[in-house]
Design brief:
By secondary structure, this protein is mostly helical. The chain is 95% helix and 0% strand. The chain has helices at residues 2-29, 34-145.
Length: 148
């Protein structure tokens, strides 16, 4: 089916080109005076030049509009990217602060645990010392009574 569409397009393009060539030939070979033919050709060339200039100006305007639109979209994308980067940076800073705060809490808890362990160690050492002193005094008293 696409081959058929291509054949029709080629046919139409050939038809248009043939019509233009035929029209130009008819103008040149028409039974008019040379002056009339030249005047018609001059008028036609002026019309074609004007049309070409109009088309060129329209194409230039469209290109400028497309460039302005592309510039606008690029600026919007850049602004959006900057905003997203700022949001991500803010979020990262908040997470860092949260982790630091949790770290401070953990360090404080560990510090308290170590302090409690030290206090328990001191109490255990004091109990053991009292125990050893009592035992030593008991043995001393027992040895003093035995020789008598």
């Amino acid at each position: 089916m696409s081959e058929h569409t291509g054949d029709v397009g080629a046919f139409l393009a050939g038809f248009v080109v043939g019509a233009l060539v035929g029209a130009a030939t008819a103008l040149i070979l028409a039974p008019q005076s040379g002056e009339e033919t030249r005047a018609r050709l001059r008028e036609r060339s002026i019309e074609l030049r004007t049309r070409a200039e109009t088309l060129k100006e329209e194409a230039r305007k469209r290109a400028e509009e497309a460039a302005a639109e592309a510039r606008k979209r690029a600026e919007e994308a850049a602004a959006e990217a900057r905003q997203k980067a700022e949001e991500l940076a803010t979020e990262a800073r908040q997470r860092v602060e949260e982790v630091q705060e949790r770290g401070k809490i953990v360090v404080q808890q560990q510090k308290e645990r170590v302090q409690e362990a030290i206090e328990e160690g001191k109490k255990a050492a004091a109990r053991k010392r009292e125990e050893l002193i009592s035992k030593a005094e008991g043995e001393k008293a027992g040895t003093e009574e035995a020789p008598a």
